[in-house]
């Protein structure tokens, strides 16, 4: 099996209302106390072979309110059908990412995108009413809430 990662920072930035790499660099510096300028940030996500530190991934995830898996698209190739089925059963749905499974020898255009198992349907409360257990149900489905605190403040907790 071979795995290739592609970054999806541009999609996350667009969905979060960040209009440019320069704005993202300012937000990381000001809000997350992760000092970076536009040029190095741009290089990190434009170049194919870069090293991303965990502190940078934490800062981006805290600023954009996403999970680390949302930053990357995962492409799997050279895997058996049985292993692909096992992978699909282990995958958790996530916000933006998608996994592209490639059959051995297949061209890139025949990738089969998947986002893992479908999430359980949620009951929609009547207008103006919030059920008491709804918050707990959402935590069970989506996992723990992501805070908008900077990485240094989170490490103190």
Helix proportion range: 40-55%
Distance between the termini: 39 Å
Overall outline: elongated
- Using only CA atoms, what is the Rg? 18 Å
Mind explaining what this structure looks like?
It is a single chain. The protein is an alpha+beta fold and 157 residues long. The protein is built from 7 helices and 4 strands; from the N terminus they run βααααβαββαα. It has helices spanning 9-15, 21-32, 38-46, 54-64, 81-90, 134-142, 151-156, and strands at 2-7, 72-77, 99-101, 112-114. It has a 4-stranded mixed beta sheet with strand order 1-2-3-4, with no helix packed on it. Helix 2 crosses helix 3 and helix 2 (21-32) crosses helix 4 (54-64). The chain starts with a strand and ends with a helix.
Note the topology.
Elements: E1 2-7, H1 9-15, H2 21-32, H3 38-46, H4 54-64, E2 72-77, H5 81-90, E3 99-101, E4 112-114, H6 134-142, H7 151-156
Parallel strand pairs: 2-3
Antiparallel strand pairs: 1-2, 3-4
Helix pairs in contact: 2-3, 2-4
Brief summary:
It is built from 7 helices and 4 strands; from the N terminus they run E-H-H-H-H-E-H-E-E-H-H. The chain has helices at 9-15, 21-32, 38-46, 54-64, 81-90, 134-142, 151-156, and strands at 2-7, 72-77, 99-101, 112-114. The longest helix has 12 residues, at 21-32.
What tags apply to this protein structure?
41% helix; 157 residues; alpha+beta; elongated; 7 helices; four-stranded mixed sheet; single chain
